[in-house]
Amino acid sequence: MSPDPNHLFDGLLKNVNLEHAFAQLDDGRWYTYNHVMEVSGRFANMLVQLGLQPGDRVAAQIPKSIEALMLYLGTVRAGGVFLPLNNAYTAGEVEYFLDNATPRVFVCDPARQPEFEALAQRLGVRLETMGVWKDHQTSAGTMLDAGTVSSPDFTNVERGPDDLAAILYTSGTTGRSKGAMLTHDNLLSNAIVLKDLWAFTEEDVLLHALPIFHTHGLFVATNTIMAAGGQMIFLPGFKIDRVIECLPGATAMMGVPTFYTRLLDDERFTRDLTAHMRLFVSGSAPLLAETHIEFEDRTGHRILERYGMTETNMNTSNPYDADRRAGTVGFPLPGVSLRVSDPETGDTLERDKIGVIEVKGPNVFAGYWQMPEKTSEEFRDDGFFITGDLGKVDMDGYVHIVGRAKDLIISGGYNIYPKEIELLLDEQEGVLESAVIGVTHPDFGEGVVGVVVPANGQAVSEAAILSAISDKIARFKQPKKIYVVDELPRNTMGKVQKNILRDTYGNTFMSEEVQT
Ligand code: MLC
Ligand code: AMP
Predict the structure, then answer these.
(1) Mean pLDDT score of the chain, rounded to an integer?
(2) Ligand 2 within 6 A of 286 CB?
């Protein structure tokens, strides 16, 4: 059967030379595109043997590894829907996703298997494990053990452009996470656009230090490099020494702003170290204009900033060949329509006017998993998706993001919805109510601060609250500071004035002084 150009896997690997290197791994192994075919084929066979039907979900909360990436590709080849989960999520958080998405298979870290056995049994989900491959002797979970004996030959299950390839959960302003349904065409069209726009070729070597459970590391980075037939230096995470060591072997890097501020804080990061680099891309959170400028002063490279979302993949990008402007996210991608609307009336605003950014195009998701009402709330009648980001298009056509209409904190590139944390703080003993805000953090861009009001006569302390919530939600979401106050500032309508809280506690992470 000839490759189906609509199938994500076939489309990504369409022009690839199978002998070409795909990834250079931290354990010294080299992966070629032949390995990609073989190992993803083995996983696809295994999933089918486990009973996977087209459209079934495969959830995974596993350490970053090349095999984890092959599980994504194997799922897609088998006609399944890949559902990656942040490794930092607690068992309680994972329970919600499994309950909501009802996957056929859940693959977890072998070290955490005991936490999930009862849950998997209750939900009727097949539990498998996958750790990090070490050598042929050591077991690294059931998927890798079985993978060595299953066949590498697999004929991809037919899928249409509108069939789902992945579901990525994204939190909501109400605190409940929503599964963004991404189709084969959403992912494939975006990868091809980005490869062309950013001029990726098979000569490229992408330094990959992002996690692979989010859009940025999983799709923007790996799909784009595959579409180009290029290779990656595939690191387990962002550790500064290793990144600096690997940079001379790379031609491109993608990262969240924290990657770039950390590099700039290191004196080994010099013009010489980056001399052969062709491209640095930043996204997932705002890159400060001063970081952009300092980066150029230090290295001579202008970071290319782009703007995306789990629901929409990438929407805009600064140009590759023309002026990359600090503080802007560039132009809408080819095929993407973008407009700025009045948040109240929905009327389209003229250039330079600030409103809510709305987008439409092949990149935009198919809706939230089993939440038709939530889906329709976030789309206009003419099909534009309301991003919740506030911005403007300037007179030269560059898009600027100036804030958010949604109550959202972005910390080190991870999204944190205050509502989810507030609901948890409110449940704690002695707490009457709470408000959660994001304030400037020197490393993560924004850091989470909780402000709590004790119930009448109760004594509450920061330490007691932090200890009580320590195993309830992922660590990166937990407030890095909690203030106890008598009351929250409210407006005449009774709404908490978070802007006042942000003014009061804005310096929390910028100075040693503790505020009261
Ligand atoms: C780690 N910690 C964080 C954090 N990451 N706290 C707040 N925000 C974060 N992002 C905490 C840990 O809980 C721990 O706390 C301590 O910091 C050290 O943990 P670590 O694992 O050693 O941290 P580190 O490896 O340095 O991780 C920082 C990071 C990582 C910036 C490298 O967060 C990261 O890789 N972020 C990228 C996120 C990403 O890929 N986003 C893309 C989303 S897609 P303690 O208290 O235990 O010490 C998207 C769409 C788009 O947004 O447009 O791309
Ligand atoms: P997520 O839901 O994790 O995919 O995060 C998407 C959100 O990240 C967007 O709605 C924006 O608020 C933010 N974001 C992504 N890229 C940028 C950027 N370049 N500048 C500012 N915000 C960004």
Answers:
(1) 95
(2) yes
**Side-chain half-sphere of 480: how many Cα atoms within 13 Å?**
21
Q: pLDDT for 119-157, tens place per residue?
A: 999 999 999 999 998 766 667 899 988 777 799 999 999
CB of 315 shorter than 6 A to ligand 2: no
- What's the gap in Å between 308 CA and the centre of ligand 2? 6
- Is the CB of 399 inside a 6 Å radius of any atom of ligand 2? no
Query: Which helix (DSSP H) or strand (DSSP E) does residue 60 occupy?
Result: strand 57-61
Rounded Cα distance between 438 and 209, Å, is 25
Q: What is the pLDDT of residues 407-439, one digit of tens each?
A: 999 999 999 999 999 999 999 999 999 999 999
Which atom number of ligand 2 is nearest to the Cα of residue 388? 10
- Report whether pLDDT(2) > 80: no
The terminus-to-terminus CA distance of the chain in angstroms comes to: 69
What is the reported pTM? 0.96
Long-range contacts of 314-318, Cβ-Cβ distance < 8 Å, separation of 24 or more: 314/190, 314/193, 314/194, 314/220, 314/283, 314/363, 315/357, 315/359, 315/361, 315/363, 315/387, 316/399, 317/194, 317/197, 317/198, 318/398
| 138 alpha carbon – ligand 2 mean position (Å) | 40
pLDDT of residue 176: 79
Question: Which residue stretches of 302-387 are H helix?
Answer: 372-377
Residue 174, pLDDT above cutoff 70: no
Mutate to test the pocket of ligand 2, among 401, 416, 420, 477 (most ligand atoms within 8 A of CB): 401
In the reported structure, the alpha carbon of residue 476 is separated from the centroid of ligand 1 by a whole-number distance in angstroms of: 7
CA of 22 to the centre of ligand 2 (A): 28
Q: Could you tell me if 358 and 318 are in contact, meaning their C-beta atoms sit under 8 angstroms apart?
A: no
Q: Is the CB of 285 under 6 A from ligand 1?
A: no
**Domains, the chain, with CATH or none:** 8-237 (3.40.50.980), 279-404 (2.30.38.10), 408-505 (3.30.300.30)
230-253 pLDDT, tens digit each? 999 999 999 999 999 999 999 999
Q: Is 1 exposed, middle or buried (0-12, 13-18, 19+ CB in 10 A)?
A: exposed
